[in-house]
Amino acid sequence: MSNQLSPLNGAQLKSLQNLTTNLTKEQAIWLNGYIQGFSASTFASADPETSPATVERRTATPLTILYGTHTGRSEKIANEIHSEATTKNFESTLLAMDQYKPRNLKNEKNLLIIVSTHGEGEPPVMADDFHEFVTGKRAPKLTGLNFSVLALGDKSYKHFCQTGIDIQQALLKAGASEIAGLVKCDVDYQPDADQWKQEVFNNLKSEPVEELPTTSQDKSTGNETITYSRKNPYEATILDKVRITGRESDKEVYHLEISLENSGIKYEPGDSLGVIAQNPGTLVDEILSTLKDDGSESLDTHAGKISFREALLHHYEITILTRDLIEKYAEKTNHKEVKKLIKDDQKLETYLYGHDVLDLLNEFPSKITAVDFLKILRPLPPRLYSISSSQEAVGEEVHITVSKVLYENKGRQRLGACSGHLAEHKEVDDQILIYIEKNPNFRLPANGSPIIMVGAGTGIAPYRAFIQQREATGHKGKTWLFFGERRFSSDFLYQTEWQKYLKEGYLGKIDLAFSRDQKEKIYVQHKLQKQQKKIFKWLENDGVFYLCGDMKKMAKDVEATLLSIIEKQGGMTPERAKGYLKKLKKERRFQSDVY
Known about the structure:
Flavdoxin-like, disordered N terminus, EC 1.8.1.2, amino-acid biosynthesis, assimilatory sulfite reductase (NADPH), electron transport, Rossmann fold
């Protein structure tokens, strides 16, 4: 690279050359977008006539792409759109929402927003300030802005895609115009996201979208590297399957070790394993019996032309109910009682919990065709399991910790679509379809900071990966585990491993909460309260707090407890304590993986 015309000094040029050596195409595209975004936000007032980028691409259409994500899905979609935009006549800038200055909105011409909703209608941490700005009183008039929002969510939650809805409504209120209407994506987001992307590009009058290859070519060897995903999962072999709860436990938890040999699949501690689910055959048969259908009819589905039975077994969600499903059922059947249920928000929320599609058919019977029945169901999403291994430690394997979902309701046993299939129908040497779901927002600190890990039940899984990673890299930094389950004797998951890590110094401290071993129930939040002085001291010394487990129960209680610890030990008002916790989240020193 010649430096004759470069405005950089020698040291800067050398750093740039080191950075750009051996970049892949995708990395180069991302770097290009990052530099453009940095220039746009840092030198917004620069004279466009003196900007080299403006001179070289004077006719390019400006496009800013912002994403807000908790698990990385919105970022993945945003990167795909940015990559396509750079091959067309767009001056595309890609930024995470926490890298963007919301006051620059008034200078934007074309804006795409891809954002998820976390928890009960809350924005992901990186989108919090942007969401607060556009929905607040300080939002400017944006009559010159063209925009579109792609919202990601899960229909099993009440406030489906709420963050995206909030942002869309706020921008419309500010006078902005939509390039394409709001699209709300369920967990099987790709088809809707692809359609939204196509509409956006068409309405922006771009060149036709180029097809992205499903394989990447290694130019040095000519070998193809296959990319595995939920659309193209890897068929993996189960190497080991062990029940890790005792016989007297009322839970069945299994440790599975899965081969990745010769797959080229890579993952990091904090990532999840996507497993293609299969519904319980008995449930499918009972649904068909209730519908008085033998399931043999061949139907057009999102998975192609297949039999009704195969569609229910492999391709549609039937083990849980969502608000959307019940609304569609009411619309298709015109059932008065279902319509009445929908109008009572509290009763509907209660009904959704613990019921499945067969309950709906039995309790609100109505004649419905197989075609219409499939139309009310959503595609069966893969199930995500926090990976419980470090690839540095186990090589071409991946481990997961699976709790079998099994309960009885109204005299009928209910079985989880994926956990039940893995527990009851899959053994060593059997094959399962898998892929890696990246989670860039649940990572070990690169600087070796102290870590506090809080989890209950299978929420302990990623912490096993964390400590394996630290052992594999020889790092004995300060580590503290809080683990909760029902009984010490039967439910202490990976007990001997934690004892080994304690002895060797890779795990510094462990606090245990077994709720059923005494009269009063003790949970992890109670253990946190007892250790609040030390916990706050760790946080003050750059500690990172991790939370993994059930979103609706444990996670909320733990976060509330942490907030009270900050308030009390920091001598803060409630508002200042909230600000402290918010700062931890922004600095990635409070990370959660909840479900």
